[in-house]
């Protein structure tokens, strides 16, 4: 990967022997490995058994989970926040594990639509919840820094599973709770 970054830097016309660029291929490779660390993680690994028996049967909502991902089309970042809600069915997930699940999938080359679905399905599978809802709001550098250069554009995606899809009252409650105030 380090050699590939050296090739890219050379390809844009820069001098790899310039003082500021001497270690850049190594640093860029290390940064890329960090930004895509989700490939080296699994949901089971990050949940690490933090699923607990509970009589809770009302909606659990974790909102404004920061996320950083990379567009698989241009390898440019998209940055935003994720809102996750679920209705427990005898088990609740450790709070930090929800954010960790978001990161497992966000730290891969992605499109936002798939990222949203992967998070929702994963939480549904792990918890056996009655329903799961995920909304992601993100700004995409591939639209802001290049192409149409629209600085204030934001993409919103949702994935609603189980009772979040089939029960209109549950869906409305979730959407009302994540609505910006």
How would you describe this structure to a colleague?
The chain has 181 residues and is an alpha+beta fold. It has helices at residues 2-11, 24-35, 43-47, 95-106, 112-127, 141-144, 163-166, 168-178; strands at residues 51-53, 60-71, 77-87, 91-93, 109-110, 131-140, 155-162. The chain has 2 domains: 2-35, no CATH class; 50-178, 2-Layer Sandwich (GTP Cyclohydrolase I, domain 2), CATH 3.30.1130. The chain is built from 8 helices and 7 strands; from the N terminus they run αααββββαβαβαβαα. α1 packs across α2 and α4 (95-106) packs antiparallel against α5. The radius of gyration is 19 Å and the shape is elongated. The mean pLDDT is 96.
Quick structural overview:
This protein is an alpha+beta fold and 181 residues long.
The biggest sheet amounts to: 5 strands, mixed
Number of domains: 2
> How does CATH name the architecture of the largest domain?
2-Layer Sandwich
Helix content class: 40-55%
CATH topology of the largest domain: GTP Cyclohydrolase I, domain 2
Global outline = elongated
Strand content: 25-35%
- Arithmetic mean pLDDT: 96
């Amino acid at each position: 990967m380090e050699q590939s970054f050296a090739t890219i830097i050379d390809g844009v016309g820069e001098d790899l022997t310039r003082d500021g660029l001497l270690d850049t291929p190594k640093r860029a490779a290390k940064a890329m490995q960090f930004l895509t660390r989700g490939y080296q993680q699994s949901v089971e690994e990050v949940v690490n058994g933090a699923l607990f028996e509970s009589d809770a049967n009302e909606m659990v909502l974790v909102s404004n989970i920061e996320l950083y991902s990379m567009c698989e089309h241009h390898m440019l970042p998209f940055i935003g926040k994720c809102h996750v809600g679920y209705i427990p069915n005898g088990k609740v997930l450790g709070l930090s594990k929800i954010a960790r699940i978001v990161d497992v999938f966000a730290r891969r080359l992605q499109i936002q639509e798939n990222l949203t679905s992967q998070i929702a399905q994963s939480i549904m599978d792990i918890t056996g919840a009655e329903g799961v809802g995920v909304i992601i709001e993100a700004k995409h550098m591939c639209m802001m820094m290049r192409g149409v250069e629209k600085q204030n554009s934001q993409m919103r995606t949702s994935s609603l599973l189980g009772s979040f899809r089939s029960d209109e009252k549950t869906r409305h409650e979730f959407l009302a709770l994540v609505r910006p105030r």
